[in-house]
């Protein structure tokens, strides 16, 4: 760019704006991290649904070990009773909360809420609510008093963060809480009187919550999830600045710290403090000490994260969150000042960090260490460190996998020491059971199953029982799944009494619901293993069908469906007692409940005897037909499925299906709308195909065939797919003449009218025409003219489809004897070989190939001698599909009609084929290599061989390898005597690649010719001598492979002398260390065992079995072991006589060998 | 095994060998090796009926008796293991 007033230069120019812009954009893009998006995807929490993430709001509690003897009259902390009480309290709270919400909603509806929300609501209302709350607390409290246990504080229960609840009310709420505390029997420090220790001096008006957290006394119930939603806002980005940080930022002078006004109490939502008790766990880090780096790291101020940690070594990666967790081991400490427990803690943290972030070898050793020392560390310190890590929000799959692995290993070691931690572990592991990743689910099951084996059934039940009627559906769901794992680990019978009790629980429907769900999950998980207990399981849940709660009824039906599915095809007698309620139920219920009932029926009917099945199907059909009209998608799917299941049972007659089901079925489901939703589409097609099994082809095809001319393409496709499947399965013999006309007509129409290119129409056309066979003759002229017309269409896709159709039709056209049609098609396709779209060209060549295949090389029109020269240039096409189609065509011509083509043309093709050896697709390379064989067969091997041998000089490895294979194939087809001399001659070339190539070719030759090797082994011995004594490793390796193949080929053919010679040359190579070489040498030695016999080999091996050098011994023992495993029995006579080594009690003579008659 | 080979297919071969009785390794003692040889010999005789009957004939015993004795001898064919006093 020139300055504004400088003389304008004629030839100065700048780039166009858009180009400059493009560069600017590029430069900007450089700063963008292209993996930023995937990084968040890797995080499990980020990609999971809200439902999955509810796991962060769960609370774990210590579960007492009831089996531990109670010492000093101390009461067991956190026992079953306690857990139950807490669960009940929680439910009560949830109920009250719901009541409040309900009331507010009502008020709003009634128009009472006219005032602004932040104004005080009427006093009476407030008092109402407060009274109710207080009453609830009182209730819970009185239960306490009667039970006489120590009360636990429940600060960590997140209370409704409802903005509608006004401060007045919270006051009362607080008050009632305080009242509770006052009445609580145990004396304990309240949060209110715990003044922050350092708060008085450097206090800023905004009190940091970090400071307060430190003084919270240990609470028995620890929330192991530090990053629960409420606490999330205190992450490093938007938390308050601490006093230290403020001190660091602001100048020391010029600022005064204002004392808070009298009577000011910091506004802190009390429950949010509850992340704090786990401070020592690491996530919620208290900044103590003076180590600036650790402080900065924890606060996220230090941008660069270390990958070298003292005492840990280098790590694969290190995240900002890790800095929080592992802050304690990030800084240098004087270890002498630490207590034993602190040392232990640091040690665990280091090992965990190594496992989580380390490189594979580091991880492996750390994992072994933590496993070995598990009992030494103890369950408490271990799980206090592991479990919070697992609940970290930024956890990624790999980390989770590793941590779960740690738990698994540690569990084995700790055994019953884990008892107090069962609930905590469950809270962390249960979410894995509903993970979308299959392997996560398997891992979860594994852990829970090991856990239940370690802790025992009684403890598992007492730990999980409180969660069974938890207020949160998520908790109940995961608990049910965990219980099913316990059942599979400890056996269904041991859990049955408990299940019976839970399923009949009178106290809450949630318990019944969960109990039944456990049974459902057991069925899903254990499959046919439920059969021995089927009657008991059904009896457990049967009464649920008449439960007054709709959800329980639905779940019962689903459970029965799962049981029936698992038991199929056995066990109908176990379902006897539920048949009546089920079939009565479908007349009583509507909606979701009905859907579940129908589902259960659908799975039970296939188990029945034919006559019962028929009867019950008739009973259910009325309802099914009524529900055909439903607009509910879920119901539609279930109805379709049930129809499919009923139709598949033996007792249901074709007559019944034709008369009673088909008319309504087609009216309801064969409508255009069904084709639009992918899942409905599939379900309808499947069900119709199932119905066709009973009703017959013509019944079904006759009903839908007219729809082939429907104006909606997706619908036509659905029809076509159904017809394809039905015809492919049942054939076309059932189709009468009139239907045949309509069918072919409809197919041609829909084929012509299709606008989207996919396989459905093509497959349908091909299947139907092939099924009709000779019957399509009258329509062939029409079909072929359609094809011919479409071959000249201006759209490449249409031409391609026409060619593909030709490929499928060729056989049928030949069957019908319409040879002149074929030759016409062949000619038109031949003219189309100039096609420029490679996909289309590929299809055209394939079609030409299909025609050549059915017509034969002699009758082929265009004649082969014209066709092949036309193909030669096409071989240069780089497109895979073209390459594959042409190589197949050429190979077939070479195989069957090579004599029609002059030798010069074949040689030209040979040179082109060499290029195909570089193809990526294995099929192409294989076809090319085989073609060499065919060509060599017709031309004689000399010319082809020289082409191939010359090709050994090229640089590219793949091409050389393929040439060697081709040489071997030529040798196989034309006889080894034609090739081996040429190869041996070529071996004299002083070029490494060529010599290796020759050796490689010989390996394949001897592999292919097998026992024929006996005639040739003497002629190659001298060459092998040379190769086996070469300095080059690869030479010796390849020569060993040749020796292997020869030795295996000539075993038992009397070539022992030359083999012995080769053995002597191979043997010294047994000390090679390069893996491929030693592998080849070992194989050759094994082959020698087969050829020469183990006795000879043993005499070689005996020399070094007790050699003073370990390296020698190791190798010789490896050979000995291979020998021993291969022929231990045959070695018996060859063992040396070691009687002279006998000493003392040990007599080494083998007396049985010395006996004779 | 040398360290170069530690991560190759040969490790598997080694492990595979170690899973079978009768295979050896670089630190196998004379006693162990010969014991295996004896057991193999006895097994071979018991496993080949013709060989067994030949030995029974040479011994002047019943075939069943010879078989039984052979089988019994497999327990400690070369006597009790020598005491480890060398190192």
Automatic annotation (TrEMBL), chain A:
It is found in: Nucleus. GO terms for biological process: spliceosomal complex assembly. Residues 937-1009 form the Phosphatase PP2A regulatory subunit A/Splicing factor 3B subunit 1-like HEAT repeat domain. Residues 99-126, 166-180 have a biased composition (Basic and acidic residues). Keywords: mRNA processing, mRNA splicing, Nucleus, Repeat, Spliceosome. InterPro entries: ARM-like (IPR011989), ARM-type_fold (IPR016024), PP2A/SF3B1-like_HEAT (IPR054573), SF3b_su1 (IPR015016), SF3b_su1-like (IPR038737). One of its GO terms (molecular function) is mRNA binding. GO terms for cellular component: spliceosomal complex. Residues 185-290 form the Splicing factor 3B subunit domain. Residues 99-208 are annotated as: Disordered. Gene3D superfamilies: Leucine-rich Repeat Variant. Belongs to the SF3B1 family. This is Armadillo-type protein. It comes from Suillus placidus.
UniProtKB/TrEMBL annotation, chain B:
Coiled coil: none annotated. InterPro entries: SF3b5/RDS3-10 (IPR009846), Splicing_factor_3B_subunit_5 (IPR017089). Transmembrane segments: none annotated. It holds the Pfam family SF3b10. GO terms for cellular component: precatalytic spliceosome; U2 snRNP. One of its GO terms (biological process) is mRNA splicing, via spliceosome. Belongs to the SF3B5 family. This is Splicing factor subunit. It comes from Suillus placidus.
């Amino acid at each position: 760019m020139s300055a504004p007033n400088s003389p304008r230069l004629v030839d100065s120019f700048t780039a166009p704006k858009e180009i400059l812009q493009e560069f600017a954009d590029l430069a900007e893009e450089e700063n963008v991290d292209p993996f930023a998006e995937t990084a968040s995807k890797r995080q499990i929490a980020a990609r999971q649904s809200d439902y999955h993430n509810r796991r962060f709001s769960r609370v774990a509690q210590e579960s007492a070990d009831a089996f531990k003897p109670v010492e000093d009259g101390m009461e067991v902390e956190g026992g079953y009773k306690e857990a139950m009480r807490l669960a009940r309290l929680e439910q009560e709270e949830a109920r009250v909360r719901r009541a409040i919400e309900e009331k507010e909603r009502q008020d709003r509806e009634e128009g009472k809420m006219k005032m602004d929300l932040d104004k005080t609501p009427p006093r009476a209302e407030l008092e109402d609510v407060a009274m109710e709350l207080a009453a609830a607390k009182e209730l819970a409290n009185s239960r306490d008093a009667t039970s006489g246990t120590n009360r636990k504080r429940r600060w960590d229960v997140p209370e409704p963060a409802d903005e509608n609840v006004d401060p007045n009310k919270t006051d009362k709420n607080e008050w009632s809480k305080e009242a509770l505390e006052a009445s609580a029997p145990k004396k304990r420090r309240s949060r209110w009187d715990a003044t922050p220790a350092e708060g008085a001096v450097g206090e800023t008006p905004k009190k940091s919550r970090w400071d307060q957290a430190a003084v919270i006394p240990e609470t028995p119930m620890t929330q192991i999830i530090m990053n629960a939603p409420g606490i999330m806002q205190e992450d490093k980005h938007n938390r308050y600045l601490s006093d230290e940080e403020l001190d660091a930022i602001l100048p020391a002078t010029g600022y005064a710290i204002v004392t808070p006004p009298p009577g000011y109490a910091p506004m802190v939502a009390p429950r949010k403090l509850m992340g704090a008790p786990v401070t020592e766990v690491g996530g919620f880090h208290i900044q103590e000490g003076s180590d600036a780096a650790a402080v900065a790291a924890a606060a996220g101020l230090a941008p660069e994260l270390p990958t070298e940690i003292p005492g840990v070594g280098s790590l694969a990666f290190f995240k900002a969150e890790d800095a929080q967790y592992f802050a304690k081991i990030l800084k240098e400490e004087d270890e002498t000042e630490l207590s034993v427990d602190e040392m232990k803690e640091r040690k665990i943290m280091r090992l965990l960090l190594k496992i989580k972030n380390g490189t594979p070898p580091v991880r492996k050793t750390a994992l072994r260490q933590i496993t070995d020392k598990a009992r030494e560390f103890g369950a408490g310190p271990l799980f206090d460190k592991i479990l919070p890590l697992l609940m970290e929000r930024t956890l990624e799959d790999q980390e989770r996998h590793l941590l779960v692995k740690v738990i698994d290993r540690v569990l084995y070691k700790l055994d019953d020491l884990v008892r107090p931690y069962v609930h905590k572990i469950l809270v962390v592991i249960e979410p894995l059971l509903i993970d979308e990743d299959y392997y996560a689910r398997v891992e979860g099951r594994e852990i829970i199953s090991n856990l239940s084996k370690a802790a025992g059934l009684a403890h598992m039940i007492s730990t999980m029982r409180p969660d069974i009627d938890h207020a949160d559906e998520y908790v109940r769901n995961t608990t049910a799944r965990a219980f099913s794992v316990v059942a599979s680990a400890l056996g269904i019978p041991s859990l049955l009494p408990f299940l019976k009790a839970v399923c009949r629980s009178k106290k809450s429907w949630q318990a019944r619901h969960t109990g039944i769900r456990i049974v459902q999950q057991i069925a899903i998980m254990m499959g046919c293993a439920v059969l021995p207990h089927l009657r008991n399981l059904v009896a457990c849940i049967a009464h649920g069908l008449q439960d007054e709660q709709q959800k329980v009824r639905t779940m019962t039906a689903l459970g029965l469906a799962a049981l029936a599915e698992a038991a199929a095809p056995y066990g109908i007698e176990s379902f006897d007692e539920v048949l009546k309620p089920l079939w009565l139920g479908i007349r009583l219920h509507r909606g979701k409940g009905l859907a579940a009932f129908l589902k259960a029926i659908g799975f039970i009917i296939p188990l029945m005897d034919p006559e019962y099945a028929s009867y019950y199907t008739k009973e259910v059909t009325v309802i099914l037909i009524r529900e055909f009209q439903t607009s509910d998608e879920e119901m539609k799917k279930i109805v379709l499925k049930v129809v499919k299941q009923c139709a598949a049972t033996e007792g249901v007659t074709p007559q019944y299906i034709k008369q009673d089901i088909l008319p309504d079925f087609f009216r309801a489901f064969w409508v255009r709308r069904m084709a639009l939703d992918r899942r409905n589409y599939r379900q309808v097609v499947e069900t119709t195909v199932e119905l066709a099994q009973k009703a017959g082809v013509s019944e079904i095809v006759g009903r839908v065939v007219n729809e082939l001319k429907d104006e909606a393409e997706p619908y036509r496709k659905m029809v076509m797919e159904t017809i394809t499947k039905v015809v492919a399965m049942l054939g076309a013999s059932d189709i009468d003449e009139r239907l045949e006309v309509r069918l072919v007509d409809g197919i041609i129409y829909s084929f012509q009218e299709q606008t989207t290119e996919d396989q459905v129409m093509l497959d349908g056309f091909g299947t139907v025409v092939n099924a009709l066979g000779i019957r399509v003759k009258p329509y062939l002229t029409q079909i072929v003219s359609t094809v011919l017309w479409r071959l000249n269409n201006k759209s490449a896709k249409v031409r391609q489809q026409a060619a593909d159709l030709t490929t499928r039709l060729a056989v049928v056209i030949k069957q019908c004897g319409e040879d002149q049609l074929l030759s016409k098609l062949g000619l038109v396709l031949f003219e189309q070989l100039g096609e420029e779209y490679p996909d289309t060209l590929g299809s055209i060549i394939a079609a030409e190939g299909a025609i050549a295949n059915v017509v034969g090389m002699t009758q082929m029109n265009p004649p082969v001698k014209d066709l092949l020269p036309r193909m030669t240039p096409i071989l240069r096409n780089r497109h895979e599909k073209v390459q594959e189609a042409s190589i197949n065509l050429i190979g077939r011509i070479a195989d069957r009609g090579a004599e029609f083509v002059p030798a010069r043309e074949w040689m030209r093709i040979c040179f082109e084929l060499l290029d195909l050896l570089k193809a990526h697709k294995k099929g192409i390379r294989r076809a090319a290599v085989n073609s060499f064989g065919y060509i060599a067969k017709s031309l004689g091997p000399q010319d082809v061989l020289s082409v191939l041998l010359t090709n050994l000089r090229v640089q590219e490895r793949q091409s050389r390898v393929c040439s060697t294979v081709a040489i071997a194939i030529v040798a196989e087809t034309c006889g080894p005597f034609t090739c081996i001399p040429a190869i041996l001659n070529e071996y004299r070339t002083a070029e490494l690649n060529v010599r290796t190539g020759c050796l490689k070719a010989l390996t394949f030759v001897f592999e292919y010719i097998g026992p024929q090797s006996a005639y040739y082994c003497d002629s190659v011995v001298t060459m092998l001598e040379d190769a086996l004594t070469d300095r080059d490793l690869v030479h010796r390796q390849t020569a060993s492979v040749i020796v292997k193949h020869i030795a295996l080929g000539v075993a038992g053919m009397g070539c022992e002398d030359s083999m012995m010679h080769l053995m002597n040359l191979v043997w010294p190579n047994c000390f090679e260390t390069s893996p491929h070489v030693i592998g080849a040498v070992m194989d050759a030695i094994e082959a020698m065992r087969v050829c020469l016999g183990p006795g000879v080999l043993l005499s070689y091996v005996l020399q070094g079995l007790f050699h003073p050098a370990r390296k020698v011994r190791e190798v010789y023992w490896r050979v000995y072991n291979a020998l021993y495993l291969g022929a231990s029995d045959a070695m018996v006579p060859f063992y040396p006589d070691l009687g002279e080594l006998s000493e003392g009690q040990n007599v080494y003579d083998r007396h049985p060998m010395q006996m004779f008659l | 095994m040398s360290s170069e080979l530690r991560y190759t297919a040969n490790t598997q071969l080694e492990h595979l060998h170690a899973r079978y009785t009768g295979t050896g390794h670089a630190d196998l003692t004379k006693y162990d090796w010969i014991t295996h040889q004896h057991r193999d010999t006895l097994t071979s005789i018991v496993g080949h009926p013709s060989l067994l009957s030949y030995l029974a004939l040479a011994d002047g015993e019943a075939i069943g008796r010879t078989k039984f004795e052979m089988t019994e001898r497999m327990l400690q064919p070369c006597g009790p293991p020598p005491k480890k006093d060398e190192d």
